[in-house]
Task: inverse folding
């Protein structure tokens, strides 16, 4: 499912860091967990190093639900397979859930495709298998610019990689993210929600 060029050209330190707008997603931890359409979803990704020398992504992620921010810190350890990470949530800040409920849980995160540079983007997929079947699939479309061109590129890449099955699923297929009137976003460009 990963684009072939990811294994050979993806550079963890070059292609991950930056501020991203999530332009669309398929992820039940965002919707329907937030019953209103989540807005203003962003991700500030930095590459850091554990005390044992292993690199990881510190992902400061934020979502607005009913006008209130719900930030999370997500951590993704680098693996020997280029573009394949292992994610975990050290402290859950989801209302009504115990803070440590997910701290020992590790999930696969794959960079399915990407584009480098100031107009770059990351198409990520999380997958959880349990009891012999897939229990969770998350598709996240992160872009450095909130433009239709960026969304169109990621959408085409996702369809080419076979992700249409989940993106077209009902009732919680692909959700577009509205980035209008977002108080904590640094860029002025806008993408209409659909």
Result:
């Amino acid at each position: 499912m990963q684009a072939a060029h990811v294994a050979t050209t993806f550079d963890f330190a070059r292609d991950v860091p930056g501020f991203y707008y999530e332009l669309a997603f398929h992820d039940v931890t965002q919707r329907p967990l937030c019953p209103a359409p989540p807005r203003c979803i962003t991700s500030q990704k930095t590459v850091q190093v554990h005390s044992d020398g292993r690199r990881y992504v510190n992902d400061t992620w934020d979502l607005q639900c009913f006008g209130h921010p719900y930030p999370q810190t997500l951590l993704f350890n680098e693996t020997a397979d280029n573009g394949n990470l292992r994610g975990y949530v050290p402290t859950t800040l989801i209302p009504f859930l115990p803070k440590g409920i997910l701290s020992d849980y590790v999930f696969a995160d794959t960079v399915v495709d990407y584009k480098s540079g100031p107009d770059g983007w990351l198409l990520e997929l999380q997958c959880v298998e349990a009891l012999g079947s897939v229990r969770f699939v998350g598709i996240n479309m992160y872009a450095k610019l909130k433009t239709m061109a960026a969304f169109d590129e990621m959408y085409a890449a996702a369809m080419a990689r076979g992700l249409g099955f989940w993106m077209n699923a009902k009732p919680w297929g692909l959700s577009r993210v509205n980035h209008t009137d977002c108080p904590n976003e640094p860029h002025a460009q806008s993408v209409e929600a659909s």
